[in-house]
Each structure stands twice: as C-alpha cells, then as structure tokens.
Amino acid sequence: MLYIVDTSSGRDTDPESDDFGKEGPGDGSVWTLDPATDRLTCLFQSENPQAGNKFDNIIVSPRGGVLLCEDGGGVEDTFGTGERLMGPTPAGETYLFAKSNVQLSATDIRQAGKSAEFVKDGDYRDTEWVGATFDPSGRWLFVNLQTLGITFAITGPWERGLL
C-alpha cells in the first residue's frame, strides 16, 4: 500500500479568504494507492483545521497505523494553540496524538545547558512537526520540531492504540 498526502485539497475554510467555500486550497487529505489493483482511495479528507490542518509528513507504523504531521500554522483547540501530530481513525475522523507546546525562555535554554547562540528563546508552538519515523524495532517513534531542530523519542505501549 502506498500513502499519499495532498496538503491543500478540499474547500477553502478561511472566512477571511476571497476563495472561502470554493474548491482548494483546503485543509488536506490522505489517500492510499494499492499497486496491485491500481485503486486510489481517500483515507481522510479534512473539512476544517480542527480536524486536520495541512498535513505534509506521514509515517505508517509497523502495525499499519498512520501518523500525520501538520504544517498549517497551528490550531487553537482545547489544548491551546500549536501544531499537532494526528492520526486517522477507522471511522474516517482524526485523533490527537501530540501537540507542540514548546515555549522557551533564555533561562530554559541555559538550564538545559544549551547556547543562546544556537537556540533562540521564543514561542515555537506553530513550528511544524517533521521527519516522523519508527526505529527498526518498532518500539521508538522519533519526530522533530523543524525550526528548533529538537528531536523527540517516544515509546509505546503501541499495542493499546491505533499506531
């Protein structure tokens, strides 16, 4: 199975846009292509930024679960504002896996033993998640916050969820 992300498919949901409600640029979709049958299927179509905000990175877990990295500039939800890691459910909806809440002060940077020359203080909640990948054992998920260059190592128990 081949997975394809279309970052801007769908209808424009920005009420401030001159193209509001028209086809494209929308909030994105995820497709599967089965090479054996040449069948293209829409796995998920975002109808609004809350459901998914311009995914542009995708990873398939060793168990076949899909994880999507947003690149839409952050979304305000019950957890505040920020970019999210999300996955589609079998019912065609999405679930929240993680959300960036990284806000660094000069003190935070010093206490972490890092140099302010390389890491700048600021609000990084709108920094996109990129490069999600599982290690060969399938036990660890590695994912990065692009602007900061921070890599997170996340471990399961994967068998309890959709990943």
Report on this model:
- The chain has 163 residues and is mainly β.
- The chain has one domain (2-160).
- Helix content is 4%, strand content 42%.
- The strands form five sheets. A four-stranded antiparallel β-sheet has the order 4-5-8-9, with no helix packed on it.
- It is globular, with a radius of gyration of 17 Å.
- Residues 1-30 are annotated as: Disordered.
- InterPro entries: PhoX (IPR008557).
- It comes from Rubellimicrobium mesophilum DSM 19309.
- This is Phosphatase.
Summary keywords:
163 residues, mainly beta, four-stranded antiparallel beta sheet, three-stranded antiparallel beta sheet, 1 helix, 14 strands, 42% strand, PhoX, Phosphatase
In short:
Pfam families: PhoX (PF05787). By secondary structure, the chain is mainly beta. 4% of the residues lie in helices and 42% in strands.
Per-chain topology:
Elements: E1 2-6, E2 29-34, E3 39-45, E4 55-60, E5 66-70, E6 75-77, E7 80-82, E8 84-88, E9 94-99, E10 103-104, H1 106-111, E11 122-123, E12 129-134, E13 140-145, E14 150-155
Antiparallel strand pairs: 1-2, 2-3, 4-5, 5-8, 6-7, 8-9, 10-11, 12-13, 13-14
